[in-house]
Design goal:
This protein has one domain. The protein has five helices and no strands. By secondary structure, the chain is an all-alpha fold. The longest helix is centred in the last third of the chain and has 33 residues. Helix 2 runs parallel beside helix 4. The chain is elongated and about 45 Å long.
Length: 95
């Protein structure tokens, strides 16, 4: 049942930075994704297998920075009413 997960595990040290970037970026845009958990797990897994922790730290930092800028830009561009209407389904998923 988890064969697909076991096939992905050898590739995490090579492509884990992309996963960290995507999840942290979308988390800062407001999607209900476990951004902090992914950063913690990536730091553990990539720290054990990779040479240094700089790559996941840079990927997470840049993703958070760009995600915050995009969220601010969307808020400025759409306004409070339209943004609340378009993210209503997302906020209902959060709680």
């Amino acid at each position: 049942m988890l064969h697909w997960l076991h096939s992905l595990l050898p590739h995490i040290p090579h492509y884990g930075y992309v996963l960290v970037f995507i999840v942290a970026f979308l988390n800062n845009l407001g999607f209900p994704l476990p951004g902090e958990t992914i950063l913690l797990g990536a730091g553990f897994v990539l720290g054990k297998t990779a040479d240094s922790l700089w790559q996941p730290m840079v990927a997470g930092t840049v993703a958070c920075f760009l995600g915050s800028i995009c969220a601010f830009w969307l808020g400025r561009r759409l306004g409070h009413g339209r943004l609340k209407k378009s993210t209503g389904s997302i906020s209902r998923l959060k709680g």
